[in-house]
Structure formats: structure tokens, C-alpha cells
Amino acid sequence: MNLRMKLAMAFLLLIIVPMCTLGIGMFLVTSHTIEKKYNQQSEYALQAISYNIENVFQQINNVTDNGIATSVFQMALNAKDPSKQDLGIGNQLSLNASQRNFRSLLYNYPFISYAFLYDLRPRSSQDNQIVSIFTKENFQALPFQQFKVHPIFKEIQELNGVPKWLAPLEYPELTGVEPVFTQIRLVKELSYFQNIGVLVVQIKKGEMDRIFRHLQISDPAQDTSFLLINEEGLIVYDPSGRYSGEKMENLGVRSGIYGPGFSSTRAVFDGSESIISQYHLKNYNWSLVSVTSWEALSAETNVFAGWSIIIILLCLLAAMVFNVFFMNRITGNIAVLVRFMRRVDDGDFNARVEGSGFDEMQLLAQGFNELLDRIGGLFRRVRAEQEQKAKAELRVLQAQIKPHFLFNTLESINGLAMRGEGRKVSEMVTRLGNMLRISIQDQEEISLSEELRHLQSYLEIQHYRFSDLFRYEIDIPSHLYTSSILKLTLQPLVENSIQHGFEGIEYQGVLRISAFVERNNLVLRVEDNGIGIPQEMLARFEYMAEDPPEYIMAEGTKQLSSMAERRGLGLRSVADRIRIQYGAGYGVFICSSPGHGTIIQCIIPQYEQGEDE
């Protein structure tokens, strides 16, 4: 797969796919949030409506409780009983007053539509056992003989005076076909708590309509319907009258979703997807249900989804345009760079990319060319350093133990032996052995203490040979003895001072060797009070810390070849080894003037053996 296809796939996988995933995720989250918020609102609305419905029923319960407590219903039943119509004037007046008070109480609740009593007392005659309190046109109460065998009658007796409410359409033979709610309860005689009658009270439809009209959700776009459903799933009341008498199963809603408390689900209702929320009335066998069209609720979400699809399509179009007009140029320039990199990989370091324009691709081409220039320079520098290293290693071998120094030392030992000075012979042999041991070992770096032992052996041998020529002092703190140093660093510097600095002097020379730490570097200093170095000779050491130009290298090499055994060979060897080992920032620095001696400073990084440089 080429770069163009990879970039296109990356754009698709890293931008388009995440955008689609994000859009789908936001759509699902938004839908869930809308449904959750609506469920909360529905729960509050249904609780408020159920509270008002239960309040209406409780008011009627209070009215009928009052009538029972004041014996109004007992007196009404007695008024119809021929055996008990022989009332005194006081009792008759009391009865009329109680009935008037009860009627006045009923008139205070204009939503009461109809009220009558069933007389449960045994009778000798076949008189009508229905006592009317309010009359109602076009309504015929169920005869008492049929009422006695009705299942409601047994349930009323089991409730023992607690009101029983019937919804519209549940028992039309008892309540009629009008959408009214009916209360049925036992009436007891207060003296003996005997069942003397059954009270039937109906309330008007308008009171329930008023509750739904004022408490329904006000947003018309939600298209919300409120229904009252019994335990069998029958819609017993619909304020709009559209679904009254229907079964929820016939409208597409499965049974069994009605239970205590609040619940909500998304289901198909009457052919359209809707959110169905139900709240079970606490003291009654009904559930209050709200049905809201999901299409109306998710209208804003659908708009959002539409815009998301449009944005994704625009992104796809932009990706295609980007691929056609911009990707070709980018991938083409990259392909050119790849071809030149392959040429470089084959060893052609003269390859250069010719870029055009002022964008990042031109900067990349320039960077590629500059990198090749730097690599070429590094190769040339490494080649030169390898050549210098080879020369420095040769000079190190030459500077380790010069043949004439070894010959002179052995001659001195022979003279001591002939004079019978065995102790001095032993000391000279021991010191010469120390020098040979350090010179021939393979380890490139040694501790400063070992280097000092080598140096002291050399100085003692030379001091024996030239005891009147010079004296020496070593001032190096003991805490620096563990510092790491290239072997044979100090001895060539000291040798240079003894052989050249003290040559032809008429006074005793003084040689001082010291060391200190400065800026995390170890500075080794060799000072003498010798004849110094002339300026023309000092100029030959100007480039000991850096690479000299080719013409100076050629001239210096020619001059040093003729004077290799006399001047500068040890100094240049030490300088080259330090620069190759530690870098261009380190080396040997010389300060000298004729007649004022010479100071040689050797600067290397300060670290102990075993540490990273």
C-alpha cells in the first residue's frame, strides 16, 4: 500500500470513523437523556394528577362519612319504612332538618351527580327497597334482588363500611353508560353497628375533565394523552373520549406493565412508537397512564442527526478534494526524497534534492541537503581523526621508553653495581621496573595515583643522574588520587621540561607538578623555571587542541619529522590522545616566554574509574 492510500485510510479511520461514532453516540445519549427527562416530568405530572383525583374521591368520602355520622341515611331509610313512620313531631322535625343539612352539604359539591340507597333491612312486604336522595334522568338503578347476587355486593360487605369506587365502564349495569365515577359503601346503624343499607353516589364527568385539563403537560408538540386503566388493561376513562372502553392489548401494548409505583417504557401504541408511563393510584385499583409520541419528543434529535450526516458527508467531500489537489504534491515530494535517500544508502553522498516553493516540503529538502553536508563533514573528520590516532599511537610507542633513556639508566645501574652500592642499585631497578610495568600494560586509563608512581620513578632516576641540575615538587591533593587519567600523560610533559627547559642553564632548575578541579574538569599543571620556549617554536603547538588547516599540518609535519627526537613529540602525542579520547574541548595548553620558564596545563574531564564519562 503506497503512502497516498495510507493517508486516505488514516483520514478515514482517524477522522471519519470517529466522527460517525461520535455522532451515533451523541444521538443515542441525547435520545436516552430526552427519554429520562421526559420520564421525570411524566412522573411528576402523573403524581400531581393522581393526587387531585384522590382528593376528589376523599372529599366524597368525607361527605358520606358525615351523612353516616349524623344518621341522615338511617332516617332516610326509616322514612320509607311504613312500620316506622309513626314519628313524633320532634323526631319528624329532626329528620327533616338532618336531610336538609345533608342536601345542603351535597349542594356544596356540585360535581355530585346522583345518590341513592339500597335498604338492607328485612321487610314483610315487597316494597321498593331503593331510596332516592338525588334523582337522575334516563337512569334506572339495578333492582335490589339483582344487586344482591352481583359480585360487587359481596365485595362491599367484605369492606365493612369502607368506600368502594367504581370507574366508568367497569360495571355499566350498576353505574350506567355515562363516564362517571361511583362510590358504593355500606351504611350502618350507629347504635348496634348493623348493616342497614348500601349508599351509591356518583360524581359528574366535568370534575375529572377539569383535573386533566389543568394538569396535563402544556407542550402541544408532545401530543400527550392521559388514560385511566384498571387492572385488566381496560381504559375506563379518557378525557378526550377517543380510547374509552378500549383494551390496551388491542392498541398494541402488552399486558403486565401495570404495577405499584411508577414505571415507563417505550412501546408501540395505536400504531405509533410512544413512551408509555404509568403511575398506580395508592388506594385504588387503577393506573394513571400518559402516552406521548416518540416522534414528537425526538424531533430535535432527528434534526441533530440530520445535521450530523450532512457534516460527515461534507468531511468526506473535503477529504476527496484534499486527496486530489494536495496529497499528490505531498506524496510526490516524499517519493523524490525516498529516491535520493536510496542513492545515499548506496553510498552516493553527493546527491542533493532540488526543492521549490516556500512550504515545509522545501524545508524538508533543505534539511536533507544540510544533513548530507554534515554527514560528509563528519566522515571526513572521522577519517582525519583515525589517521591522527594512528600517528598518535605510533608517537606513544616512541614516547614510552626511549632507547637512550633506557641505555643511560642501565649504564647508571652498572656504575652503581661496580662501586658496590647495592641499595641504590635495588632502588634504581625497582623504579625502572615500575616504569616498564605501567608502560607495557594494556589498560589505556589508570588512576592518577598510578600515574604519579610512574612519574616519581622517572623523576628519581633522572634526579640520580642529574642531581645538581634540578629539584622537583609534587603538590596534588590526595582526594584526587582516584581520578581517572590516560596513562603516560604527565611523564612526557615532565620529560619535555627536563630535556629542553633545563638545557644549558647555570642555576638549579625547579619543577612543580600540581593538580586541581575547575568546572568539573581535572587540571594538571607542570611548571618549570627553565629557558622557556621561543615564539616561533611555540607557534608550532598552536593547533594542538583543534584540527589545523592542511597547509599548517603539512608544514608542521615536515618540521617535526626533522626534529622528532628533540622537541614537541611528547607534547603533541599527549594532546592528540586527549582530544581523540575526550573531544575538542580538552587538550594541552602551553604558556611560555624565553627566560621566564614554561607552564603546561593538561585539561581532562574529572571522573573516577568505573564512572560514565
TrEMBL record:
InterPro entries: Bact_2-comp_sensor_kinase (IPR050640), dCache_1 (IPR033479), HAMP_dom (IPR003660), HATPase_C_sf (IPR036890), HATPase_dom (IPR003594), Sig_transdc_His_kin-like_C (IPR004358), Sig_transdc_His_kin_internal (IPR010559)
Keywords: ATP-binding, Cell membrane, Kinase, Membrane, Nucleotide-binding, Phosphoprotein, Transferase, Transmembrane, Transmembrane helix, Two-component regulatory system
SUPFAM superfamilies given in the database record: ATPase domain of HSP90 chaperone/DNA topoisomerase II/histidine kinase (SSF55874), HAMP domain-like (SSF158472)
Lineage top rank: taxon: Bacteria
UniProt GO molecular function: kinase activity
Domain HAMP positions: 328-380
EC number of the protein: 2.7.13.3
Compartments where found: Cell membrane
Lipid bilayer topology: Multi-pass membrane protein
PANTHER family noted in UniProt: SENSOR HISTIDINE KINASE YPDA (PTHR34220), SENSOR PROTEIN KINASE HPTS (PTHR34220:SF11)
Name by which UniProt lists this protein: histidine kinase
Organism (species): Paenibacillus taichungensis
Lineage of source species: Bacteria, Bacillati, Bacillota, Bacilli, Bacillales
